[in-house]
Amino acid sequence: MVIPRKAVSAATACAAAVGMLLLSPAPASAEVSPGDYRIAFEKNDAEVVPYGGSTARTDIRVWPADHVGMQWDVSYAGHSSGMASYEIRNLRSGLCMQPKNGNTTANQRIEQTTCSHRNEQRWHVSDVGNGAQQIIPVKNTQLGVTLENPAWNGSFLKLGYHNPSNPDFRWRFNRI
Q1: At a CB cut-off of 8 Å and minimum separation 6, what does 51 contact?
Q2: pLDDT exceeds cutoff 60 at 7
Q3: What dotted CATH number matches 35-175?
C-alpha cells in the first residue's frame, strides 16, 4: 500500500505540533488557591493584621514588622460573577474579613468579625500580573481593598475604586 506524500507530511506536522505542546511548560500563574497566607501590601511589604487583637469588629491594618495574627486562611466560597470567590479568615482569631458593618461602599474600612458565610465576607482575588493580586468584594466589584494612607506602613485597610494598574491596590499572598 502506498501512502500519498501529502498525507505523510500532514501526519508528521501534526505529530510534531502535539509533541511541542506536550513538552511546553505550563504558563506561570499568580492565581491564589485555598490555603494559609500572609498578605502583604506590595508597595511597602507591610502585612495585614487586626489592629490591637483578636476580637470581633476589630479594624484591620498593615504593619511593617512581624506581629501575632498576620496569618490568614483563604478558602474557596463558590463562584460569583463568573469568578471564584473566597472567604479570608484570620488564623489566630478565627474571624473573617469584611467591609465595616458589611457595607460595601467606597472609603469603608475593613474589619474582622464572626464568620457568617454571607456575601459581605466573600472576596474575588484577582491576578493583576507580576505575582500581585487585587482583593475585590463580591458585593461591589467596582471596589477593591487599599490603604487609607498608602504611604504609611501602619495604615488601615479600606475600600476604594480599583484599577488593575494602580499600585495602591496590589497585594501579595505569601503562602505559609
Answers
A1: 58, 59, 60, 61, 156
A2: no
A3: 2.80.10.50
